[in-house]
Design goal:
single chain; 892 residues; alpha+beta; BirA Bifunctional Protein, domain 2; Elongation Factor Tu (Ef-tu), domain 3; 5 domains; nine-stranded mixed β-sheet; six-stranded antiparallel beta barrel; 33 strands
Length: 892
């Protein structure tokens, strides 16, 4: 039975039994879900329904959900671990409970999939007597077929959320998987878990308390890969049709045969899994980067590329394996076909980038391993907590954690790959040092939010029984409504006094909440007794809108009749930028092609920012044309229309949607004349002419296949024009030329600077040549070896190396140690001619004590090593060590 048939039978079965089939949500969780980086389970899109925050379209639901789990990425390639998988599930929101879930599961497995009953073994939570009774009395299984497992408790997905006991169903793969007659369900690989029925009864809060949910729910999950393995009679998931075609393509590209060598098989499985995962992550809007989900994508891409290299693939290859994924699953998940070119561009750029990174990173890694290890005895306090190597006992050699972090932050070399390489060579990573370096880096760039520490917990708002704050801001910017909740310092109060930071909830509000890239409104809330300045808004649960700010005058009290007033100029400026963004988006497509896809945006009063996918940078002429088109549409004063329609109707209308965004059953479609049509929930102008003027201020790359364009509109565009004209006039005055020829004069000055720099470089080279001749007189002999150790007066490292090269060539055979104070810090260079390396003299070893004396460290190859320090006063004394170091090395 092919996997597509397995999936279809599942969804059809539950549809026939009154379940509404929903599409898979994106691998990128909805904007409000901060509990996980990626979608890890089918129930994630159901969480608002289980918590009672939103009303489901139907109480019975079913899905086949794309999922990604990051646990044990370094183990992927073995016979059991995966990153990307499909989770089929059926869900009941306050409808059927344990009996219904168990009955449906048994019927599907035994009747539709025709699995033998005697090979199915359920497990339950030890104290779940209700589930036990259903399995024995309703289904008719003997009690000895049911295993009690303490781990049969599911959730929550993050630190908080829905959870409850579960009942798992295992399939007996047979004694060939474990001949032990005492093999146990839940412990032996003979019994494969194929379905988990979760009885969602509780919500775990921030205090780790499991509180009853408003209604009992069912969440089940069946992994498509595992059940396909069973129904196809395979011994591993990689032999199923979900993986085998990808593995065969990778084998074809590498001239390998799957099943011959476990080493090459491991690499082929890595490529297959990571090709599936990367295809879906990129199609869902994730781009390679160094943080969060972007780093996860970069990590799996680079791991796949490296395993391709291990199989002999030096050229980019992942487009071919990802194309197989698209051929297999494109009709089920059309987004991977719709964004095919984008996926390929991102992968191609990452392969090219990592090709360069890999070589430079490997060179740097070799330097670290050869020149900068710490022994475990020297670093006895170091704790091993990292991937792979972190599971071993401390011992042997450690690579400095700061160096591993530098390799990552400066060279883009993933720490996981460093760990993998280190393990292969018998080294371990100083993970504590890495964590300290990472923490220092984060601390340096961290900005604190004033309200973060005083924000109420979600449970505080759940207790208020509020679910929706009607938004009236599309029609009004002033609205009267009572105060229905009030918080100070994270605690509910009845009154907030002047000077206090607080959160206010109104029965209705005209204030827009940051969403879809548009920032929140600001303004004030006025009552008879006081005024509250609104600085920000957010949604803690469901559609409840909370106003954050400070009591400016008097006091604000619960149940006060209030007038909410949105700051009009800020709203209008924001609307100019938002409507301008829509026109700009369409102009980008017109000029650069329909492959342009929105990847993010920011719409604020002062400016707009639009991120989009594009393989190659636009030309200056293209940017000018884009700007011209936008302003042409502005001058046309096109009518801005909003229409609410069903999601499917909106899709069919051709309106542009933000891929990966979660939309409800009804959506707003915003049209600017007949030019632009997009899904949008933001606030806008009534006519495009109100924009006034749009000026592009910046355009550049922000990642592989990702561009960012920024612009200003209205009064901010007017201000920019005035500032640029004044700057032009001032510059012309300084240069004493007419404004229209400033660029010519600047080019002339730039050429003069280049000529002077060239002259200076020539003078410095002559100085180096002259100084080299004088320095040779300081050469001494140590045990028949010529040794020259001296300081030199140079301005940069290039000159230091130039002098070093000349002196080494003049010595023909010898040891050279040079030092210089550059930018107030000592720099070191040690060279050893090849003939002396054979006698045991190594530059990388000789330089270490010298560097230590000047308060630094160094490393390098046997023929050349470089280093530096912090104490220039010790430079001469440090260089004077060289003869004794040579003598000592020759005497070994």
């Amino acid at each position: 039975m092919l996997s597509r048939e397995v999936r279809k039978i599942y969804l059809d079965f539950f549809s026939e039994n009154g379940h509404l089939q929903l599409p898979s949500s994106s691998l990128v969780p909805a904007a409000g879900d901060k509990t996980v980086l990626l979608t890890t389970a089918g129930m994630q899109q159901m969480t608002p329904y289980f918590l009672g925050l939103q009303t489901p379209p139907q109480r019975r639901l079913t899905t086949a959900q794309k999922c990604f789990r990051t646990v044990d990425i370094d183990e992927v390639g073995d016979l059991s671990h995966l990153t990307f998988f499909e989770m089929m599930g059926n869900f009941s929101v306050g409808d059927y409970f344990k009996e219904g879930a168990i009955t449906y599961a048994w019927k599907l497995l035994t009747e539709r999939y025709q699995m033998p009953e005697n090979r199915l073994y359920p497990s339950i939570y030890p104290t779940d007597s209700e589930a036990l009774e259903i399995w024995t009395k309703k289904i008719g299984l003997p009690e000895n077929r049911i295993t009690r497992i303490a781990d049969n408790w599911w959730g929550p997905v993050g630190e908080t959320g829905p959870c409850g006991p579960d009942s798992e169903i295992y399939y007996d793969l047979g004694p060939e998987f474990d001949p032990d007659p005492n093999a146990k369900v839940g412990e032996s690989r003979r019994y494969l878990e194929i379905w988990n029925l979760v009885f969602m009864q509780f919500n775990r809060n921030g205090e780790k308390q499991d509180l009853p949910l408003p209604r009992q729910n069912i969440d089940t999950g069946m992994g498509l890969e595992r059940v396909s393995m069973v129904l196809q009679g395979k011994t591993t998931i990689h032999e199923t049709d979900l993986f085998l075609n990808i593995i065969q393509k990778a084998a074809e590209l590498t001239d390998k045969k799957y099943g011959v060598s476990e080493k090459s098989d491991f690499s082929l499985r890595v490529i297959a899994d990571h090709s599936r995962a990367a295809t879906f992550l990129i199609a869902d809007g994730v781009l390679p980067g160094n943080e969060d989900r972007s780093y996860i994508l970069r990590r799996i891409l680079r791991r796949a590329i490296r395993h391709g290299r291990l199989l002999g693939l030096e050229k980019p290859f992942m487009q071919h394996t990802c194309q197989v994924v698209m051929n297999m699953l494109g009709d089920i998940y059309p987004e991977i076909l719709e964004r095919r070119e984008h996926v390929f561009r991102v992968i191609e750029k990452e392969e090219e980038s990592f090709g360069r990174t890999l070589q430079s990173g490997l060179n740097r890694f070799d330097l670290l391993v050869g020149a900068n290890p710490l022994t475990a005895s020297q670093e006895s306090a170091t704790q091993q907590t990292g991937p792979e190597v972190g599971s071993e006992e401390v011992g042997g050699l450690l690579i400095n954690g700061q160096d591993v972090f530098d390799l990552f932050s400066t060279h883009g070399f993933p720490p996981d790959l460093t760990a993998e390489l280190a393990s292969e060579r018998g080294f371990k990573i100083d993970w504590e040092g890495f964590k300290q370096a990472e923490d220092l880096h984060k601390e340096a760039s961290r900005s604190l939010e004033r309200f973060k520490t005083s924000r109420p917990n979600m449970e505080e708002y759940l207790a208020l029984d509020l679910r929706v704050t009607p938004f009236r801001g599309y029609e009004e910017i002033t609205f009267k409504a009572p105060v229905v909740a009030l918080f100070v310092g994270g605690k509910q109060v009845t009154q907030a006094e002047a000077g206090q930071d607080a959160e206010v909830v109104l029965a209705e509000t005209p204030f827009y909440v940051e969403s879809g890239g548009q920032v929140s409104d600001a303004g004030y809330i006025q009552t008879e007794a006081g005024r509250f300045t609104v600085e920000n808004t957010y949604k803690p649960i469901g559609e409840v809108i909370v106003h954050q700010g400070r009591v400016a005058e008097g006091y604000i009290a619960l149940n006060d009749r209030a007038t909410a007033v949105v700051e009009e100029d800020r709203r209008l400026d924001t609307a100019r930028n938002h409507t301008g963004t829509h026109i700009l988006h369409q102009a980008l497509k017109d000029v650069l092609g329909n492959s342009v896809g929105q990847a993010g945006s920011l719409v604020s009063p002062e400016r707009l920012r639009f991120d989009f996918t594009l393989a190659n940078p636009p030309t200056e002429e293209q940017l000018l044309e884009i700007e011209r088109i936008v302003n042409e549409k502005v001058r046309a004063d096109l009518e801005v229309r909003v229409k609410e329609m069903a999601l499917e109707e909106a899709r069919k209308s051709g309106a542009i949607m933000m891929f990966g965004e979660k939309y409800g059953a009804k959506v707003r479609v915003l049209s600017v004349g007949d030019y632009s049509h997009e899904f949008c929930g933001g606030t806008h102008l009534r006519h495009s002419g109100q924009i006034g003027l749009l000026l592009i201020t910046n355009e550049g790359s922000i990642g592989s296949g990702l561009r960012r364009i920024e612009a200003v509109t209205g009064r901010y565009a007017e201000k920019l024009v005035q500032e640029r004209l004044k700057l032009l006039e001032r510059t012309a005055s300084v240069l004493q030329v007419r404004p229209e020829i400033i660029d010519q004069e600047a080019a002339t000055l730039k050429q003069r600077v280049r000529d002077l720099e060239r002259e200076l470089a020539n003078l410095q080279q002559k100085q180096a040549q002259a100084e080299s001749s004088q320095l040779l007189t300081k050469t001494q002999e140590v045990n028949g070896v010529k040794v020259l150790a001296t300081s030199v007066n140079v301005a940069n490292l290039d000159l230091l190396r130039s002098i070093g090269d000349r002196l080494r060539d003049s010595l023909k055979s010898g040891v050279l140690a040079l030092g210089a104070v550059i930018n107030e810090k000592p720099s070191l260079l040690v060279m050893v001619t090849p003939d002396l390396v054979e006698r045991g003299l190594k530059a990388g070893e000789l330089i270490k004590p010298i560097a230590e004396m000047v308060g630094g460290r160094a490393g390098g190859r046997p023929v050349m090593a470089q280093g530096g320090g912090s104490n220039p006063a010790k430079l001469e004394e440090a260089l004077a060590l060289t003869p004794s170091l040579v003598r000592q090395a020759l005497g070994k």
